[in-house]
Specification:
- With 267 residues, this protein is an alpha/beta fold.
- The chain folds into two domains: 167 residues, 3-Layer(aba) Sandwich (D-Maltodextrin-Binding Protein, domain 2), CATH 3.40.190.10; 89 residues, Periplasmic binding protein-like II (D-Maltodextrin-Binding Protein, domain 2), CATH 3.40.190.10.
- 42% of the residues lie in helices and 23% in strands.
- The protein contains twelve helices and 13 strands.
- The strands form four sheets. The chain has a five-stranded mixed beta sheet with strand order 10-9-11-8-12, with helices on both faces.
- Helix 1 packs antiparallel against helix 11.
- The longest helix has 16 residues.
- It starts with a helix and ends in an 11-residue tail after the last helix.
Length: 267
């Protein structure tokens, strides 16, 4: 752990000590204003969420807090709808955007992505009783197997592509799909891994479980303005230091392996 903090301190020192004339536009603004502006939705636990007191928490929030601390600047968080995050970073409205943003070609055409810092993907959520009969996706891809998915989502797209033989039922929201699993109306639901992890935490009495590994690959990255290569490089190296020093893995375990943080959320 000491090596990790030493590495971050060295990274911050190199940035701050660099001549201001050589700093890129984003870094120059951050260092002059002593403030790093971050956009997030605050509605995607355990990556980004808002507590009962209005404080932002989550894996993503811990990452940007550590980055601001390494740079010796204040952290200012702007909450906005998920669909605005990439455009806010692309326009320079914020210094970076984070909050479960999958790296896709269309998004990458607008912004630079640092990372990935986390690999997500679609997974199956079911009760332990149903899960006992699932050894692989072939057991799910059967006409008698009912699956709930939120309509017009990547979950629906992936399910229809991979489990074409199963009976697929669409809902307006992921929470509605979850209710169908809990009530026994369907055998399982498909959603992204973070959502499923939180569902397991929130419903301990239901004894829910997921596949050990998501069946799609969705890397998550930090969206950055495309006009400052030095800023892009700094954040990329910062994540590299977090991963190499073990801090990133520690934070992942903190947010995904224990439900302790759930008590901080509004009921």
């Amino acid at each position: 752990m000491k090596k990790f903090y030493w590495a971050l301190a060295l990274l911050a020192a190199l940035v701050i000590a660099a001549p201001q004339a050589q700093a890129g536009a984003v870094i120059d603004r951050i260092l002059k204003q002593k403030e790093m502006v971050v956009a997030t939705s605050g509605a995607y636990p355990p990556l980004t969420a808002k507590t009962k007191e209005g404080k932002f928490i989550g894996l993503d929030m811990d990452i940007v807090k550590a980055l601001a601390q390494a740079l010796g600047v204040r952290l200012k968080i702007r909450q906005m709808p998920f669909e605005r995050l990439v455009s806010a970073a692309a326009s320079g409205e914020v210094d970076l955007a984070i909050g479960g943003i999958s790296v896709t070609p269309r998004r990458n055409a607008k912004v630079y992505f640092a990372g990935p810092y986390f690999v997500s993907g679609q997974t199956l959520l079911a009760t332990a009783k149903v899960g006992e009969g699932i050894k692989g996706l072939d057991d799910v891809n059967q006409p008698e197997f009912t699956i709930a998915v939120a309509k017009e989502t990547t979950s629906e797209q992936a399910t229809r592509q991979i489990m074409r033989r199963a009976k697929i039922i669409t809902t307006d929201t992921m929470d509605q799909a979850l209710e169908m699993v809990l009530s026994g109306e369907v055998k399982a639901m498909v959603a992204d891994y973070p959502y499923c992890a939180v569902a397991v935490f929130r419903n301990p009495e239901a004894k829910l479980g997921t596949l050990q590994k998501p069946f799609t690959f969705e890397p998550l990255g930090i969206a950055l303005p495309p006009d400052d290569p030095q800023w892009d490089n700094l954040v990329t190296n910062f994540l590299f230091n977090m991963e190499g020093g073990g801090r990133l893995n520690f934070l992942k375990n903190r947010w995904f392996k224990s439900p302790a943080w759930m008590r901080l959320l509004p009921q």
